[in-house]
Every structure is written in C-alpha cells, then in structure tokens.
Amino acid sequence: MARLAVYGAISTLLAGAVIANAFAQRSNFYAACIYLYRSNACMMIILNLGLFLTIIAGQLVQIIFFGNLRTLEVEHLYERAWYAVTETCLAMTIFKDEFDTRFVVMFTVLLFLKVFHWLCMDRVDSMEQSPEIPLSFHVRMVTMIAMLVSLDVLLVYHAVNIVTLKGPNMMIMFGFEYTLLATSLMASFGKYVLHTIDMRTEDPWENKSMLLFYLDLVADFVKLVTYLLFFMVILVCYGLPLHIIRDVYMTMRSFLQKCKDLIQYRKATRNMNERYPDASPAELAALSDPICIICREEMVGHHSNAPAGQNAAGTTAPAPAAAGAQQQARPASNTRPTGSSTNVPKKLPCGHIFHFHCLKSWLERQQSCPTW
Ligand SMILES: [Zn+2]
Ligand SMILES: [Zn+2]
C-alpha cells in the first residue's frame, strides 16, 4: 500500500510537471496538447499516470464489488495474469508492425477487464462451498456481470467496426479476446443462476450437476468455434498463427474430453445401483472413521430399507449379526427406487466407500476413484 502511494505521488508529480511545462511553453490549450502528444517522454509520463489511475480504479471496483479477496483468488489472479501476458507477447509476433501506444493501452484495458471476469468466475465457483449467500452478494454479482458483459459486447462491436473500416489489424485479436471473455462470463452467469435456484430449494437437486456439465459443454463449444474462427481469420490475413495452434488444440481437447466424459458418465451411471454394491455395516465399521471424503459427512449403514422381517431389531447400532442380515438383504435392496437410496454408502471395486449421491456427482466430473 505504501509503495503504491509513493508510486502514485511520483506519477502525479511527474505528470503535473510535464503538463504545467507544456502550458507554460505554449500559448493555448490546443498547442499544449499537440506538444504533449508529439513528445514521447511526455506521453510515457502521462500514460504512466493513466496506469496508476487504472490501478486505483481497479482497487475501488474490487472493494465495492468483491470486498476482500481470498488468498486463493489472489493466487489465481497472478497465475492467470501471468498466462495472459505471455499469451499476448506471443500474439504480438503477429501484430509486431502495429505495436504502439494504442496497443499498450488496449492491452491494459483488456487485462484490467479480464481481472474482474476472473474474479466473478471464482466467486460463482465458490458459491457451492458457502452455506449462506447474503443478498449483497447477489446484487454485486448481477451488477458486475451485467456491466462486464455489456462492456465485452460493446468492445467486440467496436473491434468489428474498426476492422471493417480499416482492414485487418490488431483489433481482430481484441475482438476475439472479448468474445471469449463474454462466453466464459455468460457460462458463469448460468452457473450462478443454477446455484441460486439450488439454494432456494430444500431438497438436493439431483440434476444440477448435469445441467452444470451441459453448460460447460456448450461454453466450450462456443469457445472452440470462436478459436477456430480466429485461427482462420489470422491464417487468411497474416499467415499461419503459430501461437494460437496451442489454444485451438487445448480447447479442442477440452471439448472432446468433455464429450468423452459425457459418454463415459452415461455408461458409468446407467446402472450404478447394480454395479456398485452397498457397503455393509461391517465394512463401514472396519473403516477408521466412516466419513465420506466427498461430502465430509458420516456414512451410516442403510438399514431402514431392508425388509422389515429380517432386520426389525437391527435399526440401532450395526451389530455384526445385523451386518449379515444386511448382506443377505442386498439383492432385494438393489431393486428399491433410487430416490430413497441417495445416501446409501456404495463400495467401489477398489474398496473405497462413498455415499451414493456423492459418488454419482463425482462420476459426473471424473470417472476414477476420488481417493487418488
Ligand atoms: Zn457423501
Ligand atoms: Zn478407491
């Protein structure tokens, strides 16, 4: 904070001095502006002040819309910012002839906006972990997302306008960047809506994770199409864009992976109830602590659904005798409706045990055992 204050003071003093000097040397406002614009050193100093003001504005927006950032969010920001900068350095190899102040300004604006996109996405993702969401969160989130998406759309429109007017230039890249940002943010907004609906309803929402998955799939598809389009445009106007090949490949791979996951998930969950046996109370008792590592809640052997005759007395602690009865009852219990069996402990072939619904939502994301 102190460093920022010093930097701000120096930037302001320098810019003030340069501007005062310009007005002292030139007779009128217009001439002074021309003088400032012509001098590279003056422009640098003024741009530097602009950078300082951008940082201050960014911190203000952060305080208003996001409050304090968590450590994880800060880490994500640095990671992503680093990636974005290297990415742009690579992109500059295509537009090297156009590298000038405008490019630097455009890039700063892009990075500035990206930061808030990332923060929004992280906040939406963290909704699942927070037990209670205050109203202020909804107000901030919806406002922020609406503002960012409108800005993205405006900037894409601006980029398209410039490119159609002046022919291909670096604005192609910015146009595509904003298209990608808008796509990701819209997907995040979709997630936000799903999480919000989920929080309003009492019962666990079985289909939510599936809807989230489809949302990601659609977003990935749009991104893939955008990247391919970008690739084609650059190929036609500038030659083979080496640095985008990686992005196109990564997006394509992610999309194909999701399609594959979807097919595998369909296979894995088609007859989950029959495929994975219920964990018997004895197996549960053998665990050092019977906690489902997916939801961190205790797993209790399922006795209420066993046929009443066999297990009438076994409704208390799972005694070994009751365990035997439970095991015999398993074939019958497999045929019960899935709705009542959502928290039955299920055993994977590797021996690990999880709640039925936890395992199901895990399989939606990954087809391997959660205990690596
Ligand atoms: Zn669980
Ligand atoms: Zn396992």
UniProtKB/TrEMBL annotation:
Listed transmembrane segments: 44-66, 101-119, 139-160, 172-194, 224-245
Ranges of residues in domain RING-type: 292-370
Ranges annotated as biased composition (Polar residues): 333-344
GO term, biological process aspect, one: proteasome-mediated ubiquitin-dependent protein catabolic process
Entries under CDD domains matching the protein: RING-H2_synoviolin
GO molecular function, one term: ubiquitin protein ligase activity
Low complexity biased stretches: 305-332
InterPro entries in the record: HRD1_E3_ubiq-ligases, TPR_SYVN1_N, Znf_RING, Znf_RING/FYVE/PHD, Znf_RING_synoviolin
Topology in membrane: Multi-pass membrane protein
Catalyzed reaction equations: S-ubiquitinyl-[E2 ubiquitin-conjugating enzyme]-L-cysteine + [acceptor protein]-L-lysine = [E2 ubiquitin-conjugating enzyme]-L-cysteine + N(6)-ubiquitinyl-[acceptor protein]-L-lysine
Pathway: Protein modification; protein ubiquitination
GO cellular component: endoplasmic reticulum membrane
Sequence segments annotated as region (Disordered): 305-344
Protein EC: 2.3.2.27
Keyword annotations: Endoplasmic reticulum, Membrane, Metal-binding, Transferase, Transmembrane, Transmembrane helix, Ubl conjugation pathway, Zinc, Zinc-finger
Source organism superkingdom: Eukaryota
Cell compartment(s), UniProt: Endoplasmic reticulum membrane
Matching PROSITE patterns: ZF_RING_2 (PS50089)
Similarity remark: Belongs to the HRD1 family.
Protein name: RING-type E3 ubiquitin transferase
Organism: Lobosporangium transversale
